[in-house]
Amino acid sequence: NISNATSIAFHDYHPKPADFFVEVIDGLLHRPRSIPPKFFYNERGSQLFEQITGLPEYYLTRTEQAILEKNAEEIARIVGRNCLLIEPGSGNCEKVRLLLDALQPQTYVPMDISRDHLRKAAINLSADYPWLDVHASCIDFTQPLDLSFCPPDSQRVAFFPGSSIGNFEPDSATRFLAQVADVVGPGGGMLIGVDLKKDRCILDAAYNDTTGVTAQFNLNLLQRINSELNADFDLNHFTHHAFYNEHKGRIEMHLISQLRQAVHIEQHTIEFAKGESIHTENSYKYTIEEFQALAIRAGFVPVYLWTDADALFSVQYFEI
Ligand code: AVI
Predict the structure, then answer these.
(1) Domain Histidine-specific methyltransferase SAM-dependent: where (predicted)?
(2) Global pTM?
(3) Residue 284 Cβ < 6 Å to ligand 1
(4) CB neighbours of 298 closer than 8 A, spacing ≥ 6?
(5) Predicted interface score ipTM higher than 0.90
(6) With 189 labelled, which of 53, 173, 209, 291 sits at a CA distance of 20 to 30 A?
């Protein structure tokens, strides 16, 4: 499992895969109906998300990238060099590249539940940064993490970019950050990308792109249920609906049944009324103060933050 001259350490904690069938049936039988957004990311879904990140309306990815690029040196000064950098849900390990030259971490621990992607991404990264000690960990972040393979005395810093924290409900976001706090420990830090509250027109447009990629991304959930769970959703009879819920401070994504219809999934029949929704995602937006308050509840202290000139997005640094 080591390619070319590149070697990484690979730690497999054997995370238990989610039960797609059980979670989908559970979500569809409860009112309001819902499907957890983690199921967006099969192969097709990940490709569509990749396309979303390049859309003109979807400012999040490029704005965060610009913030990291522009401020890498200052981030490194404030975070400190030679740390042990941990990235939960590291995916393709692309974003961390923007920081590595400036930050010069001693060790990088990408963590993901998707074993093969993690291995490939870690090997590719290691080929480009041969000086970096890479310890890929296949783990569900809620499992206890044993970092005994790492130098014990280095400062631990978690990197959680992309405003993925926005897809957690605020209470679970707090619980998740408390776990991060536990992993990095006293003296540890967290560098996190957080999308900010702004004019609702900008938010609505980011989740309703004119080319319909976000609609395809949303509808791909039904396609995935059809092919993996032997269901008969008619994709022409559901439409993508996304809007900013000002009261809750979140973008909501739904799939709306265009007519009264019955859908079959294995032995289950689900009856949809015309106009009935399946709630597929929330993407919470925070003011800087709101997010700091959330992180404080999780045990962190705000240290520094960076935004773009239009205050669309923030990269925030906290310590314990
Ligand atoms: C991954 N996550 C931060 C994206 C978001 O903006 O909430 C997922 C997404 N949903 C629709 N477009 C992008």
Answers:
(1) 23-318
(2) 0.96
(3) no
(4) 174, 175, 176, 177, 178, 180, 181
(5) yes
(6) 53
